[in-house]
User: Fold Serine--tRNA ligase from Halobaculum roseum.
Amino acid sequence: MISRQYLREHPEEVREGIENKGVDVDLDRVLELDEEWRDLKGRGDTLRHERNEVSSKIGQLKQEGKEEEAQEAIEKSQDLKQELQEIEERADELEADLHEAMLHLPQIPDDDVPVGADESENVERRREGFDDLRDLPEEVTPHYDLGEDLDILDFDRGAKVSGGGFYFAKGEGAMLEHALIQFFLEVHREQGYTDVFPPIPVNSKSMEGTGQFPKFVEDAYRVGDENADEIDDDDLWLLPTAEVPVTNMYRDEILLDDDLPVKHQAYSPNFRREAGEHGTETRGIVRVHQFNKVEMVNFVRPENSEERFERLVEEAEEVLKRLGLPYRILEMCTGDLGFTQAKKYDIEVWAPGDDMADGPEQGGRWLEVSSVSNFRDFQARRAGLRFRPERHESAEYLHTLNGSGVAVPRVVVAILEYYQNDDGTVDVPEPLQPYMGGREVIEGGEKVGESAVGAGEKE
Assistant:
């Protein structure tokens, strides 16, 4: 969350940042709560001081034999105590209300973030890999058709087992997902990342710490209860991204200056209820409820976060460079920045199988495979993430950053569409071949069951 001191000293900057992000929140109400809370705290401090002075005189008055004055002092002390108790109870109520209200205030965008209303005003910073494109079939088969033809993706059986938005990867399709995960992890180890294998269920406190809650409750999968039920800090949720458990590893802890930067990477399955858009967006594995991803999480000194952000973008895009997949880098405008981010770049890979209105001139479409974000101290304040610059100095909030390295299913889409051949097979990018038993080509498998026979595909 943003700091209360910053809110008090720069209310108009906060108001402008909220408006630029398009977030609907009553900032005046938050300011009123803070002002009332500070007023009560000040009155409480005054009463406490006054009561201490009165109490200190009671013994002296009794010693001097001034019983009547001593009794008056006792009664006044009791009155002050009662008044102080009422003020403190009200201050505690306001503190809880103020904390809840602050949770709904978004991060303020950095000054250099382009101002815009929505994704149409994002700014393309550069493209990579389009100068030397491989020869593609005259008509590129979309991944969802190709995956079923090769029997490496099974959507019907995924829906049968778990519902819409789930799928089976099978045979070489499953091998491809495993290969990508291992390849991503290996690349990021080279970049100095330490592996973390996180728990899959996370508690509500952790979701709040990274900013998923309270704003995005409806997108989460709750374990054992309905999303609309009252939420407790210890309730469990299936993680939407490994950012949540890895960032909260050090919640309410103080790291040492020598520890920083901390660079963790974590593979996990991820679970989100988001339904996506109708049409092509919901076909195949572009937008699903469960997907694999490798997440990079950084903890850094505040003065180093801007430089680390740029390096994190390079670390995330490295896997696409090695795979030879064309992609672009987008800077998010304020209206598409997200609730928690101060600055964010998206990395979008090119998938040539489906023509979209906003795709490149070569046809096809862009698929976001990584969002690289600088949260500055926003998450750190929510999760109590601090570091001590020197042993004798006070602890300070550190900065957190993260980026996907990268979302696996959409890279599978790009590989199936960009590396497909005229005969319906798919070339395996060279860096992945060692992770796929030396396979150079995905040739697919034979379908099983009476449905395959009925379709005339088996004799």
User: Anything to note?
Assistant: DSSP finds 13 helices and 18 strands in the chain. The mean pLDDT is 93. The two ends are 63 Å apart (CA to CA). The longest strand covers residues 365-376.
